[in-house]
């Protein structure tokens, strides 16, 4: 490395890659820094899709993904693998994002070496360590270690202050997910072919309203996901709708989703979409049903009503803004809430307004300035 401040950015899954590529781009363009990237590849295909579109070539790729990996084996491999990279790189700062196993072990490995940690998307709390699981505890661990907390909103900054985190280390930066969404929207504007792969489905479903679905949360495996599959089956029986559902690559999700709903002409269970195609799905959807964190942040920015199929959310801002509604994982409730929006124009219009509680698209720039101090 050369003369600048040495920053090692560590990530491993799709959502981390999406939320960190704007920061990696900004660090790479700034002479005050020497930027290094370590991917754990806790995800493989879904991570590579983002690295590819964002043009990021990691300096270290631990290639750790195993089929149906357990949390303990993954955590152990991450901790030793990431630790070795830190020993080789000796960074001045380590950057982690969010709440995954990679982010949590990245923070611990840095702490063991007394390297300060910057936490991007700090302070999200549901208040329930079992929802989302294990993410709520991962965030708390990172929060206990970080020297710089980049909170997306005032709500998340407040949650950290309540935990007695030194207020001088907490900064409201916005969420880099909005930077990423704006970046990808601009790329698609320049090169529409990047997101043209849904054209066949769009033709097949012409005249129908599109409902986009995603689901992958570990705490929903089993009963919750069965209920979600049941709700989708009932919604798919409506002829005025088309459901587009990119099925997560976690085999526990696939086992339920690829088997249960089946057999409806207007239900498309498809492979994971790369980020530009998912942005296109958000664009053409009338409504999103999801248990994803990132989708809860993107939908309000685009004014797309989103029904959150979870028992709790650490992202109350979308609900407070009126674009998101927490509906849990009961099939009757999911169907009733979806039909209310689809059949009541006023209820729909109230939710379908663009809000930006999660940021203005300039979060990466703010984080860079904090790291430069
Ligand atoms: C992980 C994160 C979760 C995050 C989610 C985003 C943890 C514990 N969980 O959950 O916080 O919300 O990513 O999607 O960090 N797989 C593939 N190819 C891929 C990705 C996954 O085949 O590209 C399969 C593998 O069988 C893998 C399994 O999915 O073992 C689970 O992956 P893992 O990263 O452990 O958990 P996720 O459920 O994806
Ligand atoms: N996403 C994507 N392709 C898909 C589904 C989601 O690119 O088929 C993007 C989406 O835009 C969002 C992120 O992936 O930015 C969310 O990832 P995921 O739901 O896997 O994880 P979470 O946000 O719940 O941690």
Q: Can you walk me through this structure?
A:
By secondary structure, the chain is of the alpha/beta class. The chain is built from 16 helices and 13 strands. It has helices at 14-28, 45-54, 71-89, 101-112, 135-145, 154-162, 176-190, 199-204, 223-236, 251-257, 275-284, 293-302, 316-321, 331-343, 345-351, 363-372; strands at 5-11, 33-39, 60-61, 93-97, 117-120, 148-151, 170-172, 209-214, 241-246, 267-270, 287-290, 306-308, 324-326. The strands form 2 sheets. A 7-stranded parallel beta sheet has the order 3-2-1-4-5-6-7, sandwiched between helices. Strands 10-9-8-11-12-13 form a 6-stranded parallel beta sheet, with helices on both faces. Strand 8, helix 9 and strand 9 form a beta-alpha-beta unit. It is globular. The two termini are 19 Å apart. 49% of the residues are buried. The model has no long low-confidence stretch (mean pLDDT 96). The structure holds uridine-diphosphate-N-acetylglucosamine and uridine-5'-diphosphate. Uridine-5'-diphosphate (UDP) is lined by residues 14-15, 18, 214, 216, 246, 272-273, 275, 278, 292-295, 298.
């Amino acid at each position: 490395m050369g003369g600048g401040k040495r920053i090692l950015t560590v990530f491993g899954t799709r959502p981390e890659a999406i939320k960190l590529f704007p920061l990696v781009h900004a660090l790479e363009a700034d002479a005050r820094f020497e930027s290094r990237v370590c991917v754990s590849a806790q995800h493989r295909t879904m991570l590579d899709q983002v690295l590819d579109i964002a043009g990021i070539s990691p300096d270290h790729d631990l290639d750790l993904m195993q089929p149906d990996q357990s949390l303990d084996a993954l955590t152990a491999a991450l901790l030793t693998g990431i630790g070795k990279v830190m020993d080789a790189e000796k960074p001045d700062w380590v950057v982690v994002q969010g709440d995954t196993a990679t982010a949590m072990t990245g923070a611990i490995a840095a702490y063991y070496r007394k390297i300060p940690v910057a936490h991007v998307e700090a302070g999200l709390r549901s208040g329930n360590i079992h929802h989302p699981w294990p993410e709520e505890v991962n965030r708390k661990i990172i929060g206990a270690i970080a020297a710089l907390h980049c909170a997306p909103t005032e709500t998340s900054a407040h949650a950290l202050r309540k935990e007695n985190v030194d207020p001088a280390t907490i900064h409201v930066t916005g969420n880099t997910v909005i930077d990423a969404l704006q970046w990808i929207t601009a790329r698609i504007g320049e090169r529409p072919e990047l997101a043209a792969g849904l054209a066949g489905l769009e033709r097949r479903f012409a005249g129908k309203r599109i409902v986009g679905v995603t689901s992958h949360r570990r705490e929903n495996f089993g009963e919750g996901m069965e209920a979600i599959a049941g709700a989708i089956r009932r919604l798919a029986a409506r002829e005025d709708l088309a459901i587009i559902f990119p099925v997560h690559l976690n085999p526990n999700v696939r086992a339920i989703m690829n088997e249960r709903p089946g057999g409806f002409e207007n239900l498309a269970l498809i492979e994971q979409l790369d980020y530009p195609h998912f942005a296109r799905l958000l664009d053409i959807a009338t409504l999103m049903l999801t248990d994803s964190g990132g989708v809860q942040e993107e939908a309000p920015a685009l004014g797309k009503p989103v029904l959150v199929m979870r028992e709790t959310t650490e992202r109350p801002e979308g609900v407070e803004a009126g674009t998101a509604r927490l509906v849990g994982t009961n099939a009757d409730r999911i169907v009733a809430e979806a039909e209310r929006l689809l059949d009541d124009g006023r209820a729909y219009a109230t939710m379908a307004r663009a809000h930006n509680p999660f940021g203005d698209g300039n979060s990466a720039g703010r984080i860079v300035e904090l790291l430069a101090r």
